[in-house]
């Protein structure tokens, strides 16, 4: 039955020539509908008509603040047309967090249990569209029942599978996927290929989180593929342009990539036979575009699976030849898929020669009219780069950078920077390329890029002079990007003395050249340059007067940061002696070696999809440690930043060790490291990331839920001595969902000598059962030591100045483990002692120096001599510090750490 009133209302709105007229007509209609709903004597047809009008008004973008209950009441109607409008209103007007959802859950459950399968489908549509937690908790069992029911028709099972997929993706902690594994896997053998297709989509998602529970999908997927491709077991309804059900083939091929190759010879032979048949069927390019697209979709996924199984197989060799043709195709989609698959191949193949044959074609793809193809060409060039072609590829990428789209420039800059650093054979080439990079696309050079340039220059003495000279030359150019100015400010402030005797680079010329760019720089860059100037005073006292004039000028500016820096630097430069100036503004030490932050930045830019990637862009080096089976994710340890999170849970050790004993092992390791696991059992995993500078420290405590249940009432408390101030910088949430990791940040201040570490109390509930943990925070006196390197004369001069007892302590002790000289050296280094070479004539003995930082005691010098006796497995430890309490505490700590068995040091 048509609704004439609705038709007339829509026609009236379409005839409105101005927004004011439309608004007037809508307000009139809404007033009429409000009065009708107040009447309460409406029949089902009238309710349906008025609800449809409200929905049309809502779709046009107008607010609808009434009529929700009348719309939801239609769900309980026995008539399909009214029930349909009720469900439509629910999906349009309500969100997953709406309070009204609770009112319709029972009506939806009733429709799920109804014998009318059309009603089942309406309910499944609504659940999938809204997908709220309330629905998932209340109705997921009913959805699962429809999915595995033998009495329901295939179209209900297909909708139930997709509804379950939606609920699992949004609320995986609620769905008992492991318990349902056997029943769901059974549906892969369903005779209806549509059911198999929907269930395969569901299993692909489930298998990524619970691979072991769904491992039985491997033989089922291989068998179904074999029957479709080889035995032609399908109906004509599923033949799409001569390609049998390509959607199912693609999903099965992708599902198998989440598992290692099967060990069963029969299965692997069947799979290889299937893959070979797919490749053989794709030798000829169909003239029909739909046929071509369907065939290629299956082919490229088959090649991906072949690479996953064995990247050196004959099938992959055949595929490499095909890929060379595809990347030259006239079809944009084919070129895109060819480049992407070749990028996958570059991540695992032993030799890149088959790919390098097409290098010119790939470079030309950077100029493709489609930006998606250009992106894939960039990914492939990045992945196929090695020592033999690095200069060519980097040069081409620099050329392309000048004309590249804005959307791709930042990623392009990152990749050029990474490749230049990775494959630089000459320091001059690295510096030249990076300066070109900044000159061409300075606005797209992120802070991480120029930070990395400074790290590399600082850590390579042979590079410092050339970098300073080149940057000085760049500054003299009329056009100088601000990022170049930042890099030059830092490098010349540190290493400007290396070129001070060269023509055109005298101290005053360095200062005037930089200061000529000062006025046009941003506030943050000016602040950096003020630090450069105070460094110049330390390096070149002869230009002190010129620089202090600048400090005087900027000590009255409005910007607080510039004013504070100028005032402080002016005060330091005017002190009677230069001791503080030389101490504070001495040359920066080398940066600690760590994974390039550029790689981390690049990985963050790679968008994740519903299906997890089994390979990453970046060639064989980036994929060599990639776990091909998604059993547990691995965490990436990076520097701690505000609001830092680590989403992945670290893998547990393979050996079976009681959790209490493992806690001691983890604790001892963390006493000698900044990052790692603190505690782990079958329920929870606690990880630590930390960093220390002088008397200050910062710790991120990561709590990972390893179960499929939500941890509630999660409370973390600490207790520490007065000598160590421990405060919460960022609290942790009290609820940790399944397979999720959250963090809590702590700030530390060392006030004095503390003899015992802080205590960590953790409480939480799982399934209503309380749990508690009491652990020690891995914070020791050694965390606040600063390593010092001294020569022989300075060491013994300082050794004699400190004198004997009580500032000296000596102990001889036997170790329970065989003494390893290299391991001993690592322990002392990890305790933050600087190892002083060529001080003790015995090469097996160690001499070390450090400074202990605290607020109350200030800086305490610490010297040690450690003499291993390899025959008797004993140590003689002699320690001298300028404070006897520090001497005793530090001696006991060093003795303990030399006696524990810390594996992996």
TrEMBL record:
One of its GO terms (cellular component) is AP-2 adaptor complex. GO terms for molecular function: clathrin adaptor activity. SMART domains: Alpha_adaptinC2 (SM00809). Residues 668-778 form the Clathrin adaptor alpha/beta/gamma-adaptin appendage Ig-like subdomain domain. Keywords: Coated pit, Endocytosis, Membrane, Protein transport, Transport. InterPro entries: Adaptor_Complx_Large_Subunit, AP2_complex_asu, ARM-like, ARM-type_fold, Clathrin/coatomer_adapt-like_N, Clathrin_a-adaptin_app_sub_C, Clathrin_a/b/g-adaptin_app_Ig, Clathrin_app_Ig-like_sf. Adaptins are components of the adaptor complexes which link clathrin to receptors in coated vesicles. Clathrin-associated protein complexes are believed to interact with the cytoplasmic tails of membrane proteins, leading to their selection and concentration. This is AP-2 complex subunit alpha.
